[in-house]
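Example 4.3 (complexes with small molecules)
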Amino acid sequence: MNFKLKNHRLLFIGTLLYFAFAFINIHFAMLAMACMITPFILLVRDKKKTWCQGYCPRASLYTKAGKSPFARGHKTPKSFIKGNVKWYVLAYFSLNLLIMLGTTIRVAAGVMEPMNYPRFLLFFAFRGELPQLLPIASGVQWLSHLSYRFFSMMMTTSVIGLLMSLFYKPRTWCTICPVATMSDAALKGIKSTGSDTTGR
Ligand code: SF4
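Answer. The structure with iron/sulfur cluster bound is encoded below.
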């Protein structure tokens, strides 16, 4: 137990490395897929939010930031915990994923130029590629397009989560994080299916 807790404190380094690696080569940004898929693999295996409870590097970063001298520690808004905000956030990021998928298919089909630049939310584009220490082009345009899109999504959620951790309680982002919202819904489904089966 202590081992897990100690490791969790250092997991924030994983988030910093993720962004650092994108400056080595943008294709490392595809590692974001692991952050999106692993929580659900662990959830199905353990029937609980194992990832969120002990392994999420971003939660570790928010905890760290929330304990810094800059943190204000205001109460998490009730609308985040009990209101519909988490559903709006889930809808927004689902739309974002659909757009990512659609544009990647269009780039692969050759009907669209790759958007090889980061974007904050869907609206603020930082025109220009990231500086690359190892500028190894994959030669596959859709892959660099998708890498930038994953980088943008990770940058957006990390920045918003960090700002929240500085203003509110450290893990405020976790109350509206799409992974948590989908995990809670899946757990509800798993539990109700379990109780249905037991009740028969
Ligand atoms: S809710 Fe999101 S940010 Fe928080 S621990 Fe889970 S996956 Fe990480």
